[in-house]
Amino acid sequence: MFVRDVIDIIESAAPLKWQEEWDNSGLQVGNRNAEVKRVLLTTDVTESVVSEAFKLDCEMIVSHHPLLFHGLKHICGETPQERCVETAIRHNIAIYSAHTSMDSWLHGVSGRMAERIGITQYSLLQAADEEHGLGVIGELKEAIPFETLLAKVKSAFEAPALRYIPAIKTNVQRIALCGGAGAEFVEDAIAQGADVFITADVKYHTFLDAHGRIGIIDLDHWVSEHFVRDIFRKLLHDKVTTFIAKQDYSPVKIY
C-alpha cells in the first residue's frame, strides 16, 4: 500500500471538497507515492506523536487536526510545528489530516458522537446533501432524565468534567451533537426540536442566550473528537496495520 492509497480510502468517506474554506485538511508532509505498512492514528500532531510514529516504524500519521494551518516561512526548528515537519521528513513519515472534511461526513465525528450515547438513527443538523453537512440530530431509544444524560455523556466520552445548562424538560430524548467547536449551531438545534445540544468550546454568552430554550452540554474539544481515531481505524481495517497514538491526549487539565 502507498500513501496515496491510504488517502483514497479516507477521502472515499470524507472528500476534501467538503472541508471548510479556512481549513487545511489533506497531505501535510510526505510523498504520495511512498510505501506504507504501518500507520499511526491521532487527533493532534505533536512532537511526542511524531516521535512515537518513528519508534513504531510507522511510515504515515493520519490525524484529525492539521499540523499546518498556515504556511511556514522557514523550517529552523524554532516552533513545535517546524520540529514536527523536520522530524517527519528526516524519518520519511508522511502526515495526512482529515479535519472538517471528516466533520462534514454524516458518519464522521458528529455521527460517532451520537453512536457513543446510543443514538443509532440520526440525520445531519445542517445538511449540504444526504451524506455531508455539519452536526447531527437523533433520538435516544427512550426519554431519560437530563441528569442521567449528563452521567451517560461523561462516561461515554471519558470526560473529566462537563459544563452545561439544564434542559427545559425533565426527561430528554431528542439530541443534537456537533464535534469540536459547534456553538454556532445552537439555533439549528433549537429549530429542529432538540431537547439538548452536545458540543464543545461554548462561550458564556451562548449559554446565556440559550438558557430556558435548550439544554447544552459542553465537552472539552479534544474529548469530543478523540474517537475520530476509531473512525480512521475502521476505514483502514484489513488494509494496513494501524496504531492508536498513546501520546495523543488533551493538554488541557481540570483542577
The name of the CATH architecture of the largest domain is: 3-Layer(aba) Sandwich
Taken together, the total number of domains comes to 2
Uncertain runs with pLDDT below 50, 5 residues or more?
A: none
Strand content bin = 25-35%
Q: What's the shape?
A: elongated
What is the first-to-last residue Cα distance? 45 Å
CATH homologous superfamily assignment of the largest domain = NIF3 (NGG1p interacting factor 3)-like
Instruction: Provide the CATH topology of the largest domain.
Output: Udp-n-acetylmuramoylalanyl-d-glutamate--2,6- Diaminopimelate Ligase, Chain: A, domain 1
Outline the structure in words.
This protein is α/β, with parallel strands linked by helices and 255 residues long. The chain has two domains: 118 residues, Udp-n-acetylmuramoylalanyl-d-glutamate--2,6- Diaminopimelate Ligase, Chain: A, domain 1 (3-Layer(aba) Sandwich); 120 residues, Udp-n-acetylmuramoylalanyl-d-glutamate--2,6- Diaminopimelate Ligase, Chain: A, domain 1. The protein is 32% helix and 25% strand. Strands 5-6-8-9-10-7 form a six-stranded mixed sheet. Helix 2 runs parallel beside helix 3. The protein is elongated and about 55 Å long. The N and C termini lie far apart (45 Å).
